[in-house]
Write a structure and sequence with these properties.
- The protein contains three helices and four strands; from the N terminus they run βαββααβ.
- Strands 2-3-1-4 form a four-stranded antiparallel beta sheet.
- By secondary structure, it is an alpha+beta fold.
Length: about 100
């Protein structure tokens, strides 16, 4: 089952320059993971400090393996420290069936 992962972050303007390289590093590493399909990072036009990351994975298990990997955890800690909180994510799948 293909899943979409949604990550929302509020990034104060004074921290964006430090965050962007970390997000790029996560994306580069993710592209080499089993099950990674694609991803994009969006910045809100309505709320300038609001960023949205959407990635597509072949299965929940592939995403969870990447989520819990040591290399991702290391970078994620830097992101969370910079933003002053834990990054939250949600997993979605296609369809209206249970």
């Amino acid at each position: 089952m293909i899943v979409k992962i949604i990550i929302r972050r509020t990034v104060p303007r004074d921290k964006a320059k430090k965050l962007i390289p970390l997000i790029r590093q996560l994306r580069i590493l993710a592209t080499n993971q089993k099950g990674y399909i694609s991803g994009e990072t969006l910045k809100s036009l309505d709320i300038p400090d609001s960023f949205l990351v959407i990635s597509n994975w072949r299965s929940p298990e592939d995403w969870e393996k990447w989520l819990l990997s040591d290399e991702r955890q290391e970078i994620q800690k830097k992101v969370d420290a910079l933003l002053g909180g834990n990054t939250e994510h949600e997993m979605f799948h296609y369809g209206l069936s249970g």
